[in-house]
């Protein structure tokens, strides 16, 4: 029997033997252990050999379930983003229910990326999409139905929002919000002390933020502020376009 393709594994369409002994491993169990390994040590340290050792099997035994690392990482990414989270504004309570739905979509997906930082390395390029990732796309596009935006415009909206949240998740990779704030504040403090007079606009912006939050380190909430600020500006632009079409 030929090895299953990435698409067949993602969508569960590969042919499976109907008879024989019960498998000692499961594909879901292999993927879960691979995710645990990547969470702990990063994607660079993931190999079929190391994964087999963690599972207590030989590397060759894993190939019965997944042909190689390319297929494994595709399965890992789809499992990491998980099933889409959907929220819909109650009827009559919002003039722009699509806005609430897309904000929830973006912030929840951002949290999924941050929970598995290695997933950012896999969310690029032309590649097969699994059912979970396709579900996220479906939810976002469905939220924009009835807005007057064309199909390509709705797809571009998803690209804009996803690019924004992935960019911020990449910046915060490997550190918590508090650690990020502390590190950025320390670095910029040293730079401004050394050459702040040469960059008055930068110095003024950081001073203003520090003054706005007395007693806290500069950029203490930068990740959260940048996240929601960017989402709001993207949604504001959509609202203007939707209003223009309606007019």
In short:
It contains 12 helices and no strands. By secondary structure, it is mostly helical.
Explain what you see.
This protein has 247 residues and is mostly helical. It folds into 2 domains: 6-81, Arc Repressor Mutant, subunit A, CATH 1.10.10.60; 97-246, Tetracycline Repressor, domain 2 (Orthogonal Bundle), CATH 1.10.357. It contains 12 helices and no strands. The chain is flat and about 70 Å long. Residues 214-223 have low confidence and may be disordered.
What gap, in angstroms, lies between the N and C termini? 59 Å
Mean pLDDT: 86
CATH C-level name of the largest domain: Mainly Alpha
Largest sheet: none
Radius of gyration: 23 Å
What's the CATH H-level superfamily name of the largest domain?
Tetracycline Repressor, domain 2
Q: Find the CATH topology of the largest domain.
A: Tetracycline Repressor, domain 2
Count of discrete domains? 2
The number of helical elements comes to 12
- The computed structural class is mainly alpha
What does the oligomeric state look like here?
Answer: single chain
Architecture per CATH nomenclature, i.e. the level-2 architecture of the largest domain: Orthogonal Bundle
> Which spans have pLDDT < 50 for at least 5 consecutive residues?
214-223
């Amino acid at each position: 029997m030929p090895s299953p393709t990435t698409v067949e594994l993602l969508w569960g369409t590969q042919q499976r033997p109907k008879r024989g002994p019960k498998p000692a491993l499961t594909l879901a169990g292999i993927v879960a252990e691979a995710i645990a390994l990547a969470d702990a040590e990063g994607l660079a340290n993931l190999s079929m050999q190391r994964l087999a050792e963690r599972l207590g099997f030989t590397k060759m035994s894993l190939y019965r379930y997944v042909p190689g690392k390319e297929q494994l990482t595709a399965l890992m990414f789809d499992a990491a983003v998980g099933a889409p989270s959907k929220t819909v504004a109650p009827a009559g309570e919002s003039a722009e229910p699509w806005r609430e739905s897309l904000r929830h979509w973006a912030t929840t997906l951002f949290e999924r990326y941050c929970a598995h930082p290695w997933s950012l390395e896999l969310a690029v390029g032309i590649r097969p999409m699994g059912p979970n990732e396709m579900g996220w796309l479906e939810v976002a596009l469905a939220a924009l139905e009835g807005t007057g935006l064309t199909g390509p415009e709705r797809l571009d909206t998803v690209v804009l929002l996803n690019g924004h949240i992935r960019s911020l998740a990449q910046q915060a990779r490997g550190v918590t919000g508090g650690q990020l704030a502390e590190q950025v504040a320390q670095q910029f403090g040293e730079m401004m002390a050394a050459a702040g007079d040469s960059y008055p606009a930068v110095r003024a912006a950081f001073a203003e933020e520090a003054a706005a939050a007395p007693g806290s380190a500069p950029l203490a909430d930068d990740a959260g502020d940048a996240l929601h600020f960017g989402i709001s500006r993207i949604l504001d632009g959509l609202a203007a376009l939707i209003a223009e079409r309606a007019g």
